[in-house]
Design brief:
It is elongated, with a radius of gyration of 30 Å. The chain contains one helix and nine strands. The protein is of the alpha+beta class. The chain is 28% helix and 38% strand. The relative contact order is 0.21. The termini are far apart. β5 (116-122) and β6 form a beta hairpin.
Length: 186
């Protein structure tokens, strides 16, 4: 075998290998394109299903103002405190265009029985509260209409929204409550 034969042999091996490599690349691109289209179809199907399922839920069509983008944590210890409060500053927010407060809540321990006080205060020193009793161990959505806050007359200059756990509304002296997705609904 001379040099020419060796070069031709090596070129043939190289060209055959590169054409197989190009075919594999084309096959991989086709597969990725197909998988992308299937994934896109699944995303749209999931969105359509979610829209259909949420159509009958009360929160689906309402405009909301989110007051807290993070989960709130009330870590209570009633020795020596008698209540633990988490307060959101509303900065004299006008709530006359809104009709309800919505949020999700859960307790950390299964065995404890806890009630949560939800309280609004305005700049005119009016306070009104609503109690959410028997907080569950799993996330549960609550919607509290503003009409349920009986002592609140003026919703124009709201100062704060407070969530409180009081000693007389919890069986255990220590525990944790999580509150998430706090929002105002129109």
């Amino acid at each position: 075998m001379d040099k020419k034969d060796i070069y031709e042999h090596l070129a043939k091996i190289y060209l055959d290998a590169s054409s197989k490599k190009d075919k594999k690349t084309r096959d991989h691109k086709k597969l990725l394109k197909t998988l992308s289209l299937i994934g896109l179809f699944l995303v749209f199907a999931a969105l359509a299903l979610n829209f259909t399922l949420r159509k009958n839920k009360p929160f689906a069509t309402q405009v909301a103002l989110v007051l807290s983008s993070e989960a709130l944590k009330i870590n209570f210890n009633f020795d020596p405190a008698k209540k633990e409060i988490f307060s959101l500053d509303l900065n004299k927010l006008d709530l006359t265009k809104y009709s309800a407060l919505a949020f999700s809540v859960k307790k950390a321990t299964f065995k404890d029985t806890i009630s949560l006080r939800v309280e609004f205060t305005n700049s005119f020193k009016e306070k009104s509260e609503v109690y959410i009793i028997n907080i569950p161990h799993k996330w549960k959505d609550y919607k509290v209409n503003f009409s349920d806050f009986k002592n609140m007359v003026n919703w124009k200059e709201m100062v704060n929204l407070a969530f409180a756990v009081e000693e007389w509304n919890a069986r255990e002296d220590k525990g944790v409550i999580y509150i998430d997705n706090v929002r105002l609904l129109k």
